[in-house]
Design goal:
This protein is of the alpha/beta class and about 300 residues long. It has one domain (about 5-295): TIM Barrel, CATH 3.20.20. The chain is built from twelve helices and eight strands. It has an eight-stranded parallel barrel, surrounded by eight helices. The radius of gyration is 18 Å and the shape is globular. The two termini are about 25 Å apart.
């Protein structure tokens, strides 16, 4: 595998699709994963093992995993929020697990149905369970930069959660701007605080472009020393439990910006743009990202 400066974690199969109205066929989801792999993406959040009544788009998690080949050096990430979900992810063949805790009480109740303290207690058990199964483990702190129900989220609140998580440290810690309200100054402040608490922890960021600040926040995160960024082919995505939480940063936009900055991603831009146009078909809407319209620069011969 070629060396990269910034790792792109492709989240379109899970976070990208979970809020879409069109229920995609399992075969289409598998095709999306295969196109991402063909573009050079090597870590993919493939699905979530949650209650299908709450997130119908993810009801075929096991069926999707059964359709996928298992290339070497590829991380297939499954999101799980409880021990039952972890059991399902392990049985289905995921080799990575992502767990979520939301930074505010109201949103955590909407997303997981329990208080933040209970989610953190669940994390303690889940981390041991996943570690024993040999899975790589990450934790995402949702609404790290703002909440649709409680408004501003101070960095100090997020860092309290970081401290609690460090009692059972994950392999990677991600900060999510779930509703796309954050700005670069917030990003730098929060990442500096996290690095001070856990200087050896691998940090990752997940941004939405709901209010047009996604790429600026990616650049701020890179300047702050982050080497892992979530992105979604075509910029699709959102959270079904957060009003107006639309639009992950588009993988093609992120790859273009980083490569033009001289940073290696290992991702083929033309292949990602082609995938963005392809997924627009099953979703029944046109590709909307900047790069899906303008293409790269200089233009390919």
């Amino acid at each position: 595998m070629a060396q990269v400066d910034v790792e792109i974690i492709e989240v379109s199969p899970r976070d990208g699709l979970q809020n879409e109205k069109a229920l995609l066929a399992t075969a289409d989801k598998a095709e999306l994963v295969n196109r991402a792999l063909a573009a050079g993406l090597r870590r993919l959040e493939v699905t979530s093992f949650v209650n299908p009544k709450r997130v119908p788009q993810m009801a075929d998690a096991e069926a999707l995993m059964a359709k996928l080949e298992r290339p070497e050096n590829v991380g297939f990430i499954g999101l799980a929020l409880n021990q039952r979900g972890v059991d399902r992810a392990i049985t289905a063949g995921c080799n990575e697990l992502n767990f979520v805790v939301v930074a505010t009480e109201t949103f955590n109740q909407r997303n997981q149905g329990v208080p933040v303290a209970e989610t953190l207690s669940t994390w303690a058990a889940i981390s041991e369970q996943a570690r024993a199964a040999g899975l790589r483990i990450s934790v995402t702190i949702g609404a790290s930069f703002g909440c649709p129900f409680e408004g501003e989220v101070p960095a100090s609140r997020v860092l309290q959660i970081v401290e609690a998580l460090l009692a059972h440290p994950p392999d990677e810690l991600a900060f999510a701007d779930t509703i796309g309200c954050g700005v670069p100054t917030q990003v730098k402040t929060l990442l500096a605080g996290a690095a001070a608490l856990a200087p050896d922890m691998r940090l990752r960021c997940h941004f939405h472009d709901t209010r047009g600040t996604g790429l600026a926040n990616v650049a701020a995160a890179i300047d702050a020393g982050v080497h892992a960024i979530d992105a979604s082919i075509g910029g699709i995505g959102g959270c079904p439990f957060a009003p107006n939480a639309t639009g992950n940063v588009a993988t093609e936009n992120v790859v273009y910006m980083l490569e033009r900055m001289g940073l290696r991603t290992g991702v083929n831009l033309d292949e990602v743009i082609a995938a963005a146009h392809w997924i627009a078909g099953p979703l029944g809407k046109p590709a909307a990202s900047a790069l899906s319209r303008a293409r790269g620069f200089p233009p390919a011969a």
